[in-house]
């Protein structure tokens, strides 16, 4: 742990320099390369988060008590449109396959899961594809795993379909719940899981959540929940619930915090916020 005497000093760690700021409530950064947790003093928030993002070597864990200290210039965040453009530039301009980014995203979420049984609730978009990656990794890790798909399998396309197929080809359990009654029953049936993964809706959510997805959120049992990118039902630009929203214990967002995740309205739904590197270079967001 860094001491008060370290305030204002520059401390080298893992090929990067971190400037230690004023003393106050601590924030935690966990290095991906198994260096263990390190506690930094806030006031450091600006340089820790910004430099860590540039180095692309750390997972930035932001606890609720620190949100108010790391908004604005202290933490880089993107609107939904900006994040979509960063994705496009990475895939189309740099040539990074979308399946690679999706696999990296799912692996970042799986890193937050320590035990099973694991229940993964997937929607029919790319968020659901991330969920299928999590399910595959959980199953291969030996955890009892089941997926509830709030759609029909034939509705899944693109990269998400690739990972749904891999999961099923490995013998993964998938329950299709395309209507409201089926969605409610299937999600309630996950109540005995140790962890639930919310992979229903992504950053494109606008307006009131309706239909089977709404029913699935309403039926969500009181189980430890990890949200994929954003809690389902949240407007990722404003941080407001679109009628209702999953209340996650951990939210793993990808590459950059989404603008709405940094505002006070989002805090009751996020839990701990993890900003995970999935391979999108910072230059794609310039």
Describe this structure in words.
- By secondary structure, the protein is α/β, with parallel strands linked by helices.
- The chain has two domains: 4-74, no CATH class; 87-252 and 279-285, Rossmann fold, CATH 3.40.50.10260.
- 30% of the residues lie in helices and 21% in strands.
- The chain has eight helices and 14 strands.
- The chain has helices spanning 45-55, 80-93, 98-110, 126-140, 158-169, 180-188, 211-218, 267-270; strands at 10-13, 16-19, 27-31, 37-40, 58-62, 77-78, 118-122, 145-149, 173-176, 195-199, 225-228, 250-254, 257-258, 272-276.
- The strands form three sheets. It has a ten-stranded mixed sheet, sandwiched between helices. Strands 1-2 form a two-stranded antiparallel sheet.
- Strand 8 (145-149), helix 5 and strand 9 form a beta-alpha-beta unit.
- The model is unreliable at 1-74 (pLDDT under 50).
Report the helical percentage: 25-40%
Average pLDDT across residues? Answer: 78
Cα distance spanning the termini = 34 Å
What's the total helix number?
Answer: 8
| CATH topology (level 3) name of the largest domain | Rossmann fold
Instruction: State the major sheet.
Output: 10 strands, mixed
**SSE sequence, one letter per element:** EEEEHEEHHEHEHEHEHEEEHE
Number of strands: 14
Oligomer: single chain
Which structural class should the secondary elements be placed in? Answer: alpha/beta
Q: How many distinct folded domains? A: 2
Second-tier CATH architecture of the largest domain: 3-Layer(aba) Sandwich
The strand line-up of the biggest sheet is 4-3-5-14-12-11-10-7-8-9
Proportion of beta-strand residues:
15-25%
């Amino acid at each position: 742990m860094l001491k008060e005497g370290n305030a204002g000093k520059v401390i080298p760690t893992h090929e990067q320099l971190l400037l230690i700021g004023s003393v106050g409530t601590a924030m935690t950064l966990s290095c991906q390369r198994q260096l263990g947790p390190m506690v930094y003093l806030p006031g450091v928030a600006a340089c820790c988060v910004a430099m860590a993002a540039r180095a692309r070597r750390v997972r930035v864990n932001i606890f609720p008590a620190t949100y108010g200290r790391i908004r604005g210039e202290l933490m880089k965040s993107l609107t939904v449109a900006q994040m979509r453009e960063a994705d496009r530039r990475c895939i189309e301009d740099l040539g990074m396959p979308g399946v690679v980014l999706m696999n990296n995203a799912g692996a970042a979420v799986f890193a937050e899961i320590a035990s099973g049984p694991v229940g993964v609730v997937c929607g029919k978009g790319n968020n659901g594809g991330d969920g299928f990656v999590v399910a595959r990794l959980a199953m291969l890790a030996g955890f009892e795993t089941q997926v509830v798909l709030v759609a029909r399998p034939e509705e899944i396309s693109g990269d998400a379909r690739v990972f749904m197929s891999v999961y099923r080809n490995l013998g993964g359990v998938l329950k299709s719940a395309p209507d409201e009654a089926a969605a409610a029953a299937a999600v309630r049936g996950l109540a005995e899981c140790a962890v639930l993964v919310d992979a229903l809706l992504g950053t494109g959510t606008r307006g009131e959540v309706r239909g089977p997805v709404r029913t699935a959120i309403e039926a969500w049992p009181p189980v430890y929940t990890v949200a994929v990118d954003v809690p389902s039902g949240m407007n990722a630009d404003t941080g407001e619930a679109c009628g209702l929203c999953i209340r996650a214990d951990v939210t793993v967002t990808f590459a950059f915090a989404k603008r709405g995740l940094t505002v006070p309205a989002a805090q009751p739904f996020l839990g701990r916020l993890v900003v995970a590197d999935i391979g999108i270079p910072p230059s794609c967001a310039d």
